[in-house]
Amino acid sequence: MAGQFSDMLSYFGMSCDPFAHDLDQSRLLRLPGIEDSLSSLGFFCERRGIGVLVGKSGSGKSCLIRLLVSGLPVGLYKPVYLCHSTVSLTEFYGHLAAAFNLPVRGRRAALFRSIKDHVLQLHGSNKIHPVLIIDEAQCLSNDILIELRQLLNFQYDSETCMSILLCGQEELLSRLRLSFLESLANSVTTTVVMKPLLPEETASYLEERLKHVGARADLFSPPAVRAIHNASHGIMRSLNALASAAIQKAWRAKAEIVESDLILPMTG
Question: Where are the alpha helices (DSSP H) in 81-162?
């Protein structure tokens, strides 16, 4: 199988998989919508507080987070990423302590004090602002969402020593409208909603991904690009999957370019 994959890459003149999930940040395309969202998140990091990033599954939130983290000045910010969202409140503090390389022991109150002391030291003595990024935040329990407000109150609202970016699907916005989360919602300084790619952005996305790996930029015919966009609805993950499958079919058919007739049967 590995030999077949290499043969396919060689056939189209590709140095690697153009639609792999682990592309280097320098190869992530800066489309207008991505640039706007990235700029808003950069503003959030400077303004501090609580930010919200939402979008449909596969819309590019992870890519946006990677771009944000890679662009934060190392000596000024400390990004901390958590993806453990379906946990208890005590487990949440344990994961947060581990992310800060702190001992994970004791009860919730002890973990809270340990995290508080560490954040105050980072912010005060080291002049480094922690940015806590919580993925799949729509799955967080109500207890954790209520507690997040306390993580910003280390100095009784006199100064924001840590920022929190909640990332998840659009239902997160609905949860933040609940009355018992009003305090948390009122602390949100920035909300970014990821939008699906526009047709012209899909075309640019495909072309740039192909060029980055040495393939011809017009490997997908215009009708094929339209078929991929319509079937994926502009969602990056679906777009990647369709494009990869279409390239495989074109290689097996020994075609020089990918036509729409290779894509339409996959869209049902």
Answer: 89-99, 108-124, 142-148
Angle between helices 2-11 and 236-252 (to 10 degrees): 90
Per-residue pLDDT at 2: 57
Return phi, psi of residue 136, to 5°: 50, 40
Contact 220, 242 (CB under 8 A): no
Domain that holds residue 247: 197-266
Q: Both tokens of residue 262?
A: 């290779």
Whole-number percent of the chain with pLDDT over 90: 68
Percent of the chain exceeding pLDDT 70 equals 94
What is the pTM assigned to this prediction? 0.87
**Residue 97 CA, distance from chain mean position:** 22
Residue 10 lies in a domain: no
CATH number for the domain spanning 56: value is 3.40.50.300
| Residue 23, Ramachandran bin (φ over 0: left; ψ between -120 and 50: alpha; else beta) | beta
Continuous segment of H or E residues that includes residue 190: strand 188-193
pLDDT band with cut points at 50, 70 and 90 for residue 161: confident
Q: How high does pLDDT run on average in the chain?
A: 89
SS3 79: strand
Read off the pLDDT of residues 128-157 as tens digits, 9 standing for 90 and up. 999 999 999 999 999 999 989 888 776 555
Number of residues assigned to the chain: 268
Same domain, 170 and 40: yes
Cβ atoms of 52 and 192 closer than 8 Å:
yes
One-letter amino acid at 162 equals M
Residue 86, in any domain of the structure:
yes
- Are residues 21 and 160 in contact, defined by beta-carbon separation less than 8 angstroms? no
The pairing of beta strand 188-193 with beta strand 50-54: parallel
pLDDT of residue 30: 66
